[in-house]
Write a structure and sequence with these properties.
17% strand, alpha+beta, flat, 3-stranded antiparallel beta sheet, single chain
Length: 109
């Protein structure tokens, strides 16, 4: 069964699908998008968003270059301050962060 949710104020539509009701192809697509297997008792929310709802007003080319340079500077500073970790530690840190925000998260190996 599919439930359609419509928010007329932003002209966005979303759909909630129960995994157990998905075709095998739809299930594989969902798992590929999420990067993990899904269980039959899960539900998947699909929502389309108009670009205007997620993008700020268009920047001029000069403002774009300036914003990108500020981001590069910021991330270079952050990167220079981080301590080195092994690949295994890095993977565990990422998985811990994902588990803290997605309780049902299971790493795909």
């Amino acid at each position: 069964m599919c439930q359609t949710i419509c928010d007329n104020s932003t002209k966005e539509t979303g759909m909630l699908h129960h995994v157990k009701d998905l075709s095998p192809e739809q299930r594989r697509t969902v798992e590929n998008l999420l990067g993990r297997p899904v269980a039959d008792d899960e539900s998947v929310s699909v929502k389309s968003i108009r670009p205007a709802a997620i993008l700020p007003p268009q920047l001029s080319p000069e403002e774009c270059v300036e914003a990108l340079e500020k981001l590069r500077t910021y991330f270079a500073k952050v990167d220079s301050q981080r301590r080195s970790v092994s690949d295994e530690e890095e993977e565990e840190i990422i998985n811990e962060a994902l588990r803290s925000t997605r309780p049902n998260y299971r790493p795909v190996h």
